Amino acid sequence: MSTYDKIEEVDENLYNDDFDLTSLDTFQHTLRSSTGETDYDEDHESDRESADSHRTTRIIKKFHLNGNRFARIDVTPPDVLLNEAAENADNFVEKNDVDRAIQEYIRCMALARIVYGDGHWRLANAYANLADAYLDLKGFSEQALLHAQTARNILVDGIDEKESSLHKNEVLSTLVTTYTTLGKALNAQNQFEAAEAALLKGQRVNESRRIYGTSLTHIDIKILQALGDLAMKRKRYDAAVDYFEKVVEETVKLHGDESIQLIQPKINLGCAFQQSGSNDKAIETLLQAHNISDSMVTDGILRAQTAEALGKGYLTLATEEGNKCAMGYFKESKELLLDHYGLSHANTLRVTDEIAKLHIKNKDFEDAIEVIVNSMKSRSSLYGEISCEVAESYKLLGGIRLSQGDMSGACKNFKKAYEMMTAIYGSNNKKSVQIQKTIDFIMQSPQMKSERLANSSKNNRAHFSSVCAKSQPIGGFKTT
Questions:
Q1: Burial (0-12, 13-18, 19+ Cβ within 10 Å), 340
Q2: Residue 402 pLDDT > 80, yes or no?
Q3: How do residues 184-241 score in pLDDT, each as one tens digit?
Q4: Which pLDDT tens digit goes with each residue over 416-465?
Q5: In principle, which of 263, 314, 341, 395 could form an S-S bond with 417, CB 3.0–4.6 Å?
Q6: C-alpha 446: how far from its chain's center?
Q7: Are 57 and 48 within 8 A, CB to CB?
Q8: What gap in Å lies between CA 437 and CA 439, rounded to an integer?
Q9: Distance between CA atoms of 312 and 93, rounded to whole angstroms?
Q10: pLDDT tens-place string over residues 241-260
Q11: Backbone angles phi, psi at 306, to 5 degrees
Q12: Strands, DSSP E only, in 306-363?
C-alpha cells in the first residue's frame, strides 16, 4: 500500500484535480524518498506558487492518492516562511494594518522556534519584535512586558556563544529593542525606577554598537523619546525638555528641519516647555509643528493633534486673547477628529471636554451645557452607560448648575454621578465620598431647605373630595 493511501483525513478539496492555486507554475520531476521507494506516481508534480503579498516562492507538492485523486501539500521550508512572515509584518505596519501585522509577528516567533530552536538569539529577536509591536501598535503593555522579558531571558541566559559571536551586531540590536520595549512597558505600568534602569541599559548597549559602523540615529531617537516620556510622567519637566530637544536635534539631522517626522517631536517638546512654565517657548514650538502639518500633512489626525496641543499651550497664557486662540484651535482639532473618527471616539471626546471646560472658564455656561449634553449619548455608547467617564460628565454638569445657582439641577446631576461611582467603586471610595460631601453641602442650602419644606407641606395636606358628606346617613330603618 502506498504511504499516501493512508491520508484519508485530508480535505476533499485537496483531492480535486481542479484545485485552484493562484500564480502556479508547474514543473515535473521525480521525488525519491530516503528509502528509495516510489509510492507516488513517477509523474508526481512539484508546484511553485508566488503569493501576491510577498516575493516568497511557495513550494506545493502534488501527491497521488487512491485512484485519480491527488493532494497538494505546501512543503515550503520553514526558514523561507520565516522570511516571508517578517516581510509581511513590515508591509502591514506600513499600511497601518495593525491586527494582521501582529499575526505575522506571532508567525515569526513560532517559525523562529522551529528553525532555530530554543535558546537562539533569533528566537529572542522574534519575541522582542512581537513585544515592540504589541506596545507601539496596540498599546498592550502587559503583553509587551511578558514577551520582552522572555527575549531578555533568552539573550542573557541561554544563547549559543559561538553562534552569537558571529552575529554580535544583530544580537546587540535585539538587546537594544528588548530593553527599550521593557522600559516603555514598565513606564506604562508606573514602575518608574525599573523603567529608567531598562532604558539606560538599552542606551549603553546601543552606544557599544557604534564600533560596527552602524547608523544608529533612529534608535537613539527612539530611546531619547522614551526617556523623555518617562521624565514627563515623573513630572521632571526640565529633564523632559532636555531629552525632547535632543530628539528634535537628531530628527533634524536625519530628516531635515521641515520634515513630517519633526512634527511629533516638536509637539512633545512644546508640551514639555508648557509644563516647565516656559509658555512662550511652548507656543513657538507648537506653532512650528502646526505650520509643518498644515503645509505638508494630508492626514487630519496629525493636524488635529498639533491643533489640540496649541490650544492647551494658549490656555496657559491665562489671558482673554489666549483663551480665544485656544478655543479656535480646539474647535479646529474637533472638526478634524469628527471627520476621521466621528464623535464616539476617545480622542474626539477628549477635545470636546476641553471645549466645554473652556466655555465654563469663560462663564459661557449654556454653551458648556450644550456641548456636554450633545456628547453624552456618544460617551455612553463608547464607555458604557455606567462608567467613570459618564459620571465625570454628570459631575461637570452639576458643577455648572451649581455655578448658576440651580441647586435642584445640580443635586440631580451629582446624584447621578454618585450612583455611577458607587456602582463602580463602592460608597467608601474617595471619589464617591467627595461627591456625597458635595450633595450634602447642596442639601444644606436655603433653596433646597425651602424646596424640602414645600414638598413636606404638600405631602401632609389633607386629601379633598368633590363629594360633600350629607347631614343624614343614607339608608337605614324608617322610624315612626
A1: middle
A2: yes
A3: 999 999 999 999 999 999 999 888 887 766 666 788 899 999 999 999 999 999 999 9
A4: 999 999 999 898 888 899 999 988 888 888 777 776 666 665 555 555 55
A5: 395
A6: 48
A7: yes
A8: 5
A9: 31
A10: 999 999 999 999 888 888 88
A11: -65, -35
A12: none
Distance CA 21, CA 133 (A): 32
Q: Which amino acid type is present at position 383?
A: Y
For the segment 5-54, what is each residue's pLDDT rounded down to a tens digit? Answer: 333 333 333 333 333 333 333 323 332 333 333 333 333 333 333 334 44
**Grid coordinates 493633534 are at which residue?**
305
304: exposed, middle or buried (Cβ count in 10 Å: 0-12, 13-18, 19+): buried
Angle at the Cα of 128 from the Cα atoms of 254 and 302, rounded to 5 degrees: 45
Rounded Cα gap, residues 137 and 143, in angstroms: 12
Read off the amino acid at residue 110: A
> Could you give the angle at the alpha carbon of 182 between the alpha carbons of 161 and 150, nearest 5°?
50
Residue matched to cell numbers 337605614 = 476
Q: Which three cell numbers stand for residue 371?
A: 456641548
Can you state the percent helix, strand and coil of the chain, rounding each to 5? 70, 5, 25
DSSP 259-299: -GGGHHHHHHHHHHHHHHT-HHHHHHHHHHHHHHHHHH---
Which burial class, exposed, middle or buried, applies to 119 when counting CB atoms under 10 A from its CB (0-12, 13-18, 19+)? middle
Rounded to an integer, what is the distance from CA 476 to the centroid of its chain?
85
Cell output for 212: 560596527
Edge to edge, what strands does the sheet with 57-64 contain?
24-28, 45-50, 57-64, 70-74
Question: From CA 325, how far away is CA 309, in angstroms rounded?
Answer: 12
**Nearest-angstrom CA–CA distance, 220 and 381:** 41
Best CA proximity match to 115, nearest among 165, 78, 63:
78
8 A C-beta contact, residue 340 and residue 300:
yes
- Give the CA count within 13 Å in the CB-facing half-sphere of 35: 4
Q: What is the C-alpha to C-alpha distance for residues 158 and 65, in angstroms, rounded to an integer?
A: 45
Distances (CA, A) of 196 to 127, 137, 204, 229: 21, 22, 12, 11
353: cell is: 471636554
Query: Could you tell me if residue 139 is left (phi over 0), alpha (psi between -120 and 50 degrees) or otherwise beta?
Result: left
The interaxial angle of helices 446-460 and 430-443, nearest 10 deg, is: 70
The SS3 call for residue 70 is strand
Angstrom distance (rounded) from CA 116 to CA 78 = 10
What is the greatest pairwise CA distance in the chain?
Answer: 136
With left for phi above 0 and alpha for psi between -120 and 50, is residue 19 left, alpha or beta?
beta
Q: 366: helix, coil or strand?
A: helix
Beta carbons of 218 and 180 less than 8 angstroms apart: no
